[in-house]
Design a protein that fits this description.
The chain has a six-stranded antiparallel beta barrel. It is elongated and about 65 Å long. The protein is mainly beta. It has two domains: 254 residues, Beta Barrel (Thrombin, subunit H), CATH 2.40.10.120; 103 residues, Pdz3 Domain (Roll), CATH 2.30.42. The protein contains six helices and 23 strands.
């Protein structure tokens, strides 16, 4: 049985460019020759001014399930050198056998098998990975006529309250479908040291171990997310009504690199942060009340090399730099900063405007990669 990656409690949100605090989050993998080389074609649809919303009737959900079922596969991964293994799900994205899944479903395993909805089984290999977004692309060696690529939707167009279905293989129950709604957007989860997952979709369609890498579909049958984690406050690894999916637009951004065999790196500054609020600004006798307070700076990090200063910010005598803008983007909160940095690449240089001792300064920082 493969041990699950459990994201432990986070004391406060100002981790090293981390996300909001979460307690007990579990990823969803369960314990437990052919293929073309042609041009990859991924089916997508353009944003609609009237996003489709699935009806709540059982008949309509059944029709939707029949439409999308063949695009979701079962993934069995194992390590030939040990007895460890795991079960997950994946989404077919082209006729060449490329399948989008979670990184944690296939990471550290050297034997991967894929099973299609019709029972066809084949071996697969990892093509590219994006550990920072918990995404990976594998290639299954299956004849093209056996594959039904999913249609990738536009996750930026989804609305809270929109009806969705999740399709995957929870607890080895193949081809399971569950229905719910989008409960929230823009969520963040912190792994407790690694890069946080950002801009996640929160949904209440039941997902459980084995759903990892499966699809969250909208009412048109378009993939809007890749299911990746659940809240796990009790430690029992069962669904409690809050699940998370990586937005398909996040996957779309990095798919070309993953299909090209690359492992994606993400930029970071190397600082621990805290939102500056009016109350905190008053306590610290600051002249500004919006921005992010630098609490600590990692030695040798990008921010450290650029000379940023930290301070825990409990009294006027231990105030760190306050970041108020990056390039031309105003920074009012931690999320503003994290989202802007995520939009850049490793090696990019950004102009960071800070307040230090009541004086405005600008510091140039060359972004580094998140460390594993």
């Amino acid at each position: 049985m493969r041990d699950k990656l459990v994201w432990g409690a986070v004391i406060f949100a100002s981790m090293v460019l981390g996300g909001a605090a979460v307690v007990g989050v579990n990823t969803l993998d369960d314990d437990g020759n052919g293929g073309g080389g042609g041009t990859t074609v991924i089916e997508t649809r353009q944003p609609s001014s009237n996003p489709g919303v699935a009806s709540s009737t059982a008949e309509d959900v059944a029709d939707l399930y029949e439409q999308v079922r063949d695009s979701v596969v079962r993934i069995n991964a194992s390590d030939s050198g040990s007895n460890s293994g795991g079960l997950g799900s994946g989404v077919v994205i082209d006729k060449d056998g490329h399948i989008l899944t979670n990184n944690h479903v296939v990471a550290d395993f050297d034997e991967i098998d894929v099973q299609l909805a019709d029972g066809t089984s084949a071996s697969a290999t990892v093509v590219g990975r994006d550990p920072g977004n918990d995404l990976a692309v594998i290639k299954a060696y299956v004849p093209a006529d056996k594959l039904k690529p999913a249609v990738l939707g536009d996750s930026d167009a989804i609305r809270v309250g929109e009806t969705v279905i999740a399709v995957g293989n929870p607890f080895d129950l193949e081809g399971t479908v569950t229905q719910g709604i989008v409960s929230g957007i823009g969520r963040s989860l912190n792994e407790g040291g690694g890069r946080p997952l950002r801009q996640l979709i929160q949904a209440d369609a039941a997902i459980n171990p084995g759903n990892s890498g499966g699809a969250l579909f909208n009412g048109k049958g378009e993939v809007i997310g890749i299911t990746t984690a659940i809240e796990n406050p009790s430690g029992d690894r069962v669904f409690v009504g809050i699940g998370y999916a990586v937005p398909v637009n996040t996957a779309r951004r990095f798919l070309p690199q993953m299909l090209n065999g690359e492992q994606i790196e993400h930029p970071r500054l190397g600082i621990a942060l805290r939102d500056l609020t009016p109350a905190l600004a008053n306590t610290l006798n600051l002249t500004i009340d919006r921005g992010v307070l630098v609490q600590s700076v990692e030695s040798g990090s990008a921010a450290g090399r650029a000379g940023l200063r930290g301070g825990i910010g409990t009294t006027p005598n231990n105030v760190g730099d306050v970041i108020v803008a990056i390039d031309s983007a105003e920074i009012k909160s931690f999320d503003d900063l994290a989202n802007y940095i995520d939009s850049k690449k490793v090696g990019d240089t950004v102009s960071v405007k800070i307040m230090r001792g009541g004086q405005e300064q600008t510091v140039q920082i060359t972004l580094e990669a998140w460390r594993s």
